[in-house]
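Please predict the structure of the following assembly.
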Amino acid sequence: MTLDAALPMSKRDLLALIGRTGGAAAMYFAMSNLGQAHASPFKGVPVLDGGAKGASVLILGAGVAGLTAAYELRRAGYKVQVLEYNDKVGGRSWTLRGGDTYTELGGAVQNCGFAEGNYINPGPWRIPHNHYAIMHYCHELGVALEPFMQLNYNAYIHSSKAFDGKPQRFRHIQADFMGHVSELLVKAVKKDALADTVTKEDGEILLEALREIGALDKDFRYVTGPASSVRRGWAKGPGGGLTAEPIASEPMTFESVLRSGMWSHITDSMDTTHHTAIFQPVGGMDMIPRAFAKKVGDVVRLNSKVTAIKQDEKGVTASYVDTKTGEKLTAQADWCICTIPLSILSQIEMNVGADMAAAIGAVPYAASLKVGLEFKRRFWEQDEQIYGGITMTDLPIGQISYPSSKYGSAGPASLLGAYGFGAFAFEFTSLPPAERVARTVEWGSRIHPQYKEEFLNGIAVGWHRVPWTQGCFGQWTDEMRAEHYKNLCQIDGRIMLAGEHASYIPAWQEGGILSALDTIGRLHQRVMAG
Amino acid sequence: MVLGAAAALALGCMAASAVAQTAADAAGRAKPGAAFAGDADGAFQSPFSFGEPDGEKMYRRVCAGCHMPDGKGAKGAGFYPALAGNENVASGDYVVYVVVKGMHGMPGVGRMMTDAQVADVVNYVRTSFGNKYRDKVTAAQVSAVR
């Protein structure tokens, strides 16, 4: 069934068809995709009406969670003060541009040498359309968004152990894997090998579906020809005039695609957090905290390192040090919303109950690495016709993400040259920054030989060396959540926590914002009841 | 399912999502053998396991990311404790426990090491940076903690 054939059907008819052929689970997921059922927890900002009864709230941390809490609570009439360790707002919502200086733990200093307009986002870099809360704030605060090119069929999948280390276009791997698998399944259906689970009538539908899904020819074969070339690309594309006739490309063999392991990347953009449409703020992720700062920047005190948090029956007092002057100060309020990452908070004296204290101390912070590289020209566009998107590799750099903006422009351009996790990220982080960059260029040159000739400069962020987080994100497991998650999120006296660590969406800004909204809703109930 | 994820990833396909990484970490040290030749220190062999062959290299290429090459730790919004002159290092059992299980924000990096690798790096830390604890921990001690 082609898409065109599906269009005249009513949505209900289509759902009935999917439900019949695919079972209840397929029905549910199809409904989600069609927008009739979805699991978004964001139903809008909680209504904080009834006044704040003069209550004050001290917010610790000016990342997106803290900024969201400050913005909404102030609007509801609360007296709000925010303490931030850094010399700017945003926390991990962070952008490095030319002229920026970054000093990591251990003292290594990097000066970003990018040209005007080039940047990398060392932290969050994507905003899925279904992260409704952060989308809401981008729209409300006037943060301009542009498409983030998540899936680019012309980008590469690379394995150092397959095809002699030669990168393969995503479209080749995807089309050839789906084509060969579809052809195999056709053979099984035609041999009645699935007769005990698929009726003869459904088998006929399935054959047509497989021809469509797999780009098979009229004889249900995945072979060199127009059907497969339309999907994977032609050897010589259709043109105009005398030399217009296209020449079909030859698919790779099933065995070579299967054994390459590259098929595992076909699904990289299929989970909902990577679905199209997916966005980035124009000019860098920190456009979001900057927009918040226009609303609440006047209540944020920067360069303030929290050293102790104490509560009693009347309120909360945070002790902090001005990191510029060394002056020791305190801030007081009726309530405290603490968004400090648990990696830091677990080291700060705070009189909460044993359950919350145990939860704060239970969550390890993941290693991660990002390296931004600047090149003299957009060779990935000019030489290889890759406009945005991501190349995946088994090399320690993990991936290369090409800029999703300013396509075709002349002059230097920056890309994300490495984004890694796991053991590789620990090992990268242990290296001096210049060595991280040098190795990123070396490994990347195996995919793009132009790297060495075109390289200008780079900047490398190993997240365990970031002074304000000591790690990338809270790395929960199911077992840890069962024991500690609710204890982490409960209100403990006058203290409550928020941030991506207090969410089921680790490492995403949506998690931080949703936890902030949940927290302020519960705080407001408490204040109204008080 | 965890094993399936690890197997797919072991083919050289490092997923870039937090969830996938958590699943990979939960799966523990991938076996068998190294996926890549690695560098001169034995680093960069696999995203799932550390290939460093001795305690000194393991410290320099993994632990030093936080505790720093001189073992003196670091201070920012929080801190990484110094291992130099750290009284807790007197207990080999304690250090083994922290390396394997983690501590607060510190991940249990020992899950990506063999028992012998954990013992080696613990023994290195306890005899370096001015530490002079000569009693060695063993791989069997590490195994008992897992």
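The radius of gyration of chain A is 26 Å. Chain A has four domains: 3-34, 56-90+286-363+477-529, 96-123+366-465, 167-267.
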